[in-house]
Amino acid sequence: MLSTFKQKHYSIVVGGFSTNLGIRGDDNLQSMLVGTVMRKIKSRTWKKQRYFKLQDDCMTIWYKSKKAGKPHSTFSVTDVEAIREGHQSEVLLSIADEFPADRCFTLVFRGRRANLDLVAESADEAQSWIRGMRKLIENLENMGEREKLDQWIGDWFRKADKNNDGRMNFKEVQDLLKMMNVDMNEHHALRLFTMADKSQSGTLEDDEFVLFYKMLTQRDDVLRVFQEYSVDGQKLSQSDLEDFLREEQLEGDDIQQHAKELIERYEPSDAAKLLNAMTFDGFLMYLGSAEGSIFNPQRRGIFQDMSQPLCHYFISSSHNTYLMEDQLRGHSSVEGYIRALCRGCRCVEVDCWDGANGEPIVYHGHTFTSKILFKDVVNAVGNYAFKVSEYPVILSIENHCSVEQQRVMAQHLNHILGDKLLKSTLDGKAPIGLPSPEDLKGKILLKAKKIGGLEESFNGMVEDSLTGEFSDEDEVTEIDEDNLHRESRSKQRLSKELSDCVVYCKSVHFSSFKHSRIHSKFYEVASFTESKARKHLREAGAEFVHHNSRQLTRVYPSGFRTDSSNFNPQEMWNAGCQIVALNYQTAGEGMDLNDGLFSQNGNCGYVLKPSFMKEAEKRFDPETPQKRDGYQPVVLTIQVISGQQLPKVNIKEDSIVDPLVRVEIHGVPMDQAKQETRYIENNGFNPVWYDTLRFTIHTPELAMVRFVVEDYDKTSKNDFVGQYTLSLSCMQQGYRHIHLLSKDGTSIPPSSLFVHIRITDLE
Description:
By secondary structure, the chain is an alpha+beta fold. Helix content is 29%, strand content 24%.
């Protein structure tokens, strides 16, 4: 590994990767390096000047108050997901009359961190930062595995070089080891330090530190695999690599071609490339890349048939989308919609109530949550619906408005969304079934109450009265069935204008599966709280699956979850429920599973259900999976080999992680299982387990696998370190790295697990 870094790369360690990226010649970045005074805005009344500056590493933004003695803050460019220009956030919209749009911009962070709203002194300065930040983000996205590694080494060097003299003494190295989660005795640390200190100066500089880092991160676990397949122990010839791909990675398609491509893509040594061979460095690069990861790259993009009826897909769905926190006092925000849509969510919820001045508002009724305007929500949906997925978005309306304000709602929907709003059936004829996501690309569908059915609109039966009446049985309020408070079940009046906006998703009250089988229409959607859904699942699982093969069902969290916690969506997917609505604002197992399921198929928000859940005549019951046609259970064997550079959980200087790995299977009830490795004491840097876990899975098509790393604590609950969740069907076999995610679902490079995976039919 060392030779490749020595000559070319050592200057990067100290100087950041700026020299690599043509940054010296970029005027925007030059002015960011000099720094700028901008206003940081938190509200109409909180607007304070801060000095912002790009650090020399071209990776960190530093800012502080102009007042002496105030501490500074920093954030990394890697934390920034997007830059919005102009008045593109609630905060900046609220001060639009004070600062022109061309001076305003918003930095949107990954995960659940609050936006940073800024106003520059001039339009030119704003542009300079907007373009500069975008350039830095683009550079990061285009970085190869190799540059990422250099980047890491540089980051650690800067963190540890406390006195900024560009070299590191032994004391600084010891502090660095603690920062890196390494518990190493002084004698061993000194031995590595002395070996790396080639110039015998008592300090490490440039390439000496690279050497030290390489010795520290030596991957003996990967070396074992490399040597097992290398005939001469020095390199993998192309045929050695082909053997590895065939026997370990279980690749079938044109292995010869693939081995060639891998050498071309990951081998750093030109000499090895000429020999069509791969050195250990190249092998490590390959195993650390997306191709060497556990997630099958062929399932990243859209690979499923998108032309089946909507009810044949699981649909990524959000509950109380407007809430950023809890259900009782939380802050309501348009930002909730933007974040959900930008994560690929395709069904958002809008709780509508009468507001002042004839303008409907959105908030969690009967609570102290703040209120936002309905028209602002519609604007946000119109602007962000199709940024990450072109497939349809469903607006799930919970309507508590008077007829007058319902008309205003209809006006806003028509006026703001225009052609995006689906107002009639696709071909203008009476339909016989639900259209597909493909048919509905770029369309926004309303799910709400409707006067009469879809058929009447084609045979002229809808009376021309301006309002219709219906009994509001099902969702008077979501908390209703939990008896936290009751509303009178009055006849609510519905405006014809709003009713006409509903085409394929008419909200109806659910009586029973038997009633539905005889009377229900394909465009009718019933909603259940999680407890009602569970009851139906227990009492009539196969009926539920059958019902969901013909029409859409929405399931939402119980009203008792005032803390915005989530239920486990898997049990609802087991019954084929498509719209399983979760609190996107709340991190944890529920959202991990949701992110895991929808990370496949282009993250487009639609995942095709297994065939046995789509065909009405196939009677699949999640309680008795062994009874279905084509039942073939599998055995999943996971050898958890090692961990790499796990993040520190405890901020305390001296605390070092005691990691263990838990593997959880989420699927039909028979498949629910968890197993753990041992914990390794005091090593979050490179723990080694070689522990094997085995699971029998009866319905592999529905199974999700969640890897959780925790810091073992014998006296209290283990601390969460990282996790990664994916569908079993998206797993690659063989030796794989799992790139861990934080609690928020954002990546935390270079933290990973190294595992070996086998999936075999149960004989």
